[in-house]
Amino acid sequence: MLFKFATLALVGSALAQRPANTSICDYYTTALLKENTAANQATLLTLVVNTAVIGNYTMPNVGIKVPGILAAGMYNGTMVNLLPYFDGGLASSNNGTAAVAMNFLDDGGAVPLMMNMPANGTTYLLTHLYQYFGVLLGCSMQGPSATSAFPSYQGEASQYSVHKYMDLSAAEVGYFITQVGLAAASFGVATADVTAVGMALGSLFDYSCAPPTTVIKAQGPQLQAICIDSTCPVSPNATCAAYAAAMQPLVANASLAMGEGVNSTASMMSGSATATMMSGSATATGTMMPSVTAASGAGKLVVGGVMAAVAGLMALVL
Asked: What is the bridge-based pairing of β-strands 213-214 and 93-94?
């Protein structure tokens, strides 16, 4: 399905000129979709998130290759394979009381995403991602209820709770968030804005043992650390006692797990795992500093950033 945008050549010449008092969401909704409405903001987030998940599927774009988080790839020399955490290969999702295997791709897979939908039926995985990133990017038109044209975030308050059974590593969350950055860049988002988003997400979610932090105002301070294995940097204000010991997820389906996780006879404290999200929740993970390359060799993004950019972003959205 092709989507109609304003001419990206014209948009590209204006991206670096985003006013400091205009949020990333509001600015790019207008730049790409012409009118800053709730429906258009929802469309923008749908396009970026769906592209981050499955890779490039829209035209036009600015020619940046996005492998997608469902494609295996290398991150700083470490192989990352996120697919088993989305297709039920691992018991890595939190159902509220225990770690369970959940298949988030059983309602149409990539097909509805290529049609700018979250799934063929009712789903909370991608819709909550749209909502969550809408808050982070300062979408001013998000409504207060689930029936709004573009609802405010309706998912789980603590992202640590969502991801606690995944034992996420620095490489895995870095790969995930870099795909988000590539997706945004593929639509012409300026490097400074891509960097600001990556740095903001990293400061919120990439430090193990981080103290409770408010991301969604209405939900108050919550444990938000997602990167929790031994490769993750420790928060300078560490509150490790508030977090359970990290353990690798168990294999639920060996053919789908593709070598990730551990079998039921093993018990290991840390190691390789990847990111997904329980139904009814959302995810936002990683930093965007190193380079990331798809397994096929396609796609690379190298971005830096400064904390001033993070402060500017967070002032707009929090």
From this structure: unpaired
End-to-end CA distance of the chain: 34
Q: Which residues pair with 93 in a beta bridge?
A: 100
Using a cut of 0.90, tell me whether the model's pTM lies above it.
Answer: no
Q: How do residues 278-317 score in pLDDT, each as one tens digit?
A: 333 333 333 333 333 333 333 323 333 323 333 333 333 3
Task: Give the H or E element holding residue 315.
Answer: helix 307-317
Lowest-pLDDT range of 5-14, 36-45, 50-59: 5-14
Measured between alpha carbons, how far is 263 from 133 in angstroms, rounded to an integer? Answer: 34
Q: How far is 54 from 50, CA to CA, in rounded Å?
A: 6
Closest CA to 49 of 107, 106, 111, 118: 118
Contact call for residues 211 and 235 (beta carbons, < 8 A): yes
Contact 145, 263 (CB under 8 A): no
